[in-house]
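Fold it.
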Amino acid sequence: MSFQYQPLLEDEIRLLTIEPIRVSSGQSDFPEIVVTLENVRLAPLATQHPDERFKGYGHTWPELTNCYDTTVLFKNGKDPFPVRQKSSTTIEDESIKNDATLPWRYPWGDFIALSYVWGPQTPRRFITVNGTKQFGVTPNLYDALIQLRRTQRIRQGFKVWIDAICINQDDLAERSKQVSRMCETYQSAWQVVTWIGPEADNSSLAMTALQWLADQSRRPEENPLEGVYQKGFSIDARPLLIVPVTYRSPFKKSIYKALFKFFCREYWRRMWIIQEMANGRSDMPIMCGDRCMAFDELYRAAVVINNDQARFGRDILDTGWSRLAPKYYYVCAIDRLDLDQDTKWSSERLWKLQVALMQIQRNQKDSPADWQALVQVLLLARESNVTEEKDRVYGILGLKAVVDRVPIVPDYNIPLATSFSTFTSKFLATGDLSILRLVSRTAGPTLPPPERRLEAIPTVLRHRYVAPIVYLILDSVTDSQEPAPVGTPCIHNLPSWAVCWTCKPAPTIHLRGTYRADQDMGAPLPVYVSSDLSITVKGIILDTITSLGTSHPDETGERYPSNILSTHSIYGDLEATRAALWRTIVANTTFQRYGQAT
């Protein structure tokens, strides 16, 4: 018998209670999970006074206090900067005991909201929901439920909101409505809990390294890793010879690889985490396997790596890439080429992502959010992974930088092109034309690097400084390849002014600052969208474009205006135009800076 959802009332959401572990007589690779699903109202709060204490009033997650052994990080087994750690047992006991006599925030209790990635749909795992034993979930969600059941807050009685279970995914109307409420849901939760995934790829070692880096961030030095690396051999005999300085790392090589794998987890590629983490607290728990750390601690660790990316960051990338690319082979927008999964990772998509997520979370409290905060969100959403393409715009409607400008309601029944056009038109209706910077319809060619693998060269040449030189020589004698496209030509039949969030844009530079010709002196420009999908902007005509400059055909689409042939020059004939050109170059002055040039 399939599970039947009870309809939600106007102000209701569903929450599940994870039942304690049941005693089983047999052994099973997949322990039984039993949950109870119920409809609840988010208002009113049972605790109305802001100073009134409630269960979990300190928002502490007891598992965050677990101690860790830092000696496993170093080759010599010694931590150069040990930090005194607190005993976890006492803190865990006190945080729960202090709540025993306190009331819940709501009449029905309290809840946490889970942030996770669905992951592969198969093989399906089955849990029991309200007595129905055939409720299918993804393997990653099953693992999350197993781990959550062990935590003290769940055992204390906190309920959980999980989108895959608490929203009827087969009911598009309910799904649209609940997606529009997700910001409220995550903000109303006692705590947002992040599930990165089960233990894999030495993730426990990565979590230990991240916690150590976070602890080092509290050192007074500008670069907390100063003194950790040992300076090696170098020569500076310019202009004859330069041997760059090298540094010897005290860390085990497995540390860097574990960190690379951690930052490459599928969770960090998921689009929905932008909104979920933005509406959480800075101390929200990050769970990976049976290890846990606070988000602000992860952020501290990411900042340390970012500030020392020439050494620590480089070592993460060097040990993570299975392909050693030539150090001096530069290709425009190489991360957008469909060559190999390895080419898609850069520092911006590894540890810098955690830094960006913390900035977005802080921007939630700013009013109003500026263009830089908005474009940061929009670009992350465009580059992230989604199951439903409409979620590239629906999944960020709970962010302040977006909701202040785009008042739309998710609707999964409309075509994709309509949802993208509506998003852009609502933005333009505010009188702000900045979003037009993100419009892209074309793709340009670039020459991909040759297929080079480390195993293709002799063992004696497989050195980080020798291999790139060998590759450079091989490149010089290799026949040129067919150009590969950079970006994706848009196929969604959008108006020319609408931003497509699905197709990869051309590798252009995004101007992040405010760009206004009127310096905000006047009222917002009125923008009108007509029934024929054209837009009209009201403004002041300063000049008229008579012709366009030359452009590369691969950088423009079919709708790009052709050059207007004009026989008239404002300067007169050809000689007068040439004279205007050279006078412009010398600013129409002599080398003595007075008098007109002749």
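The chain has 18 helices and 17 strands.
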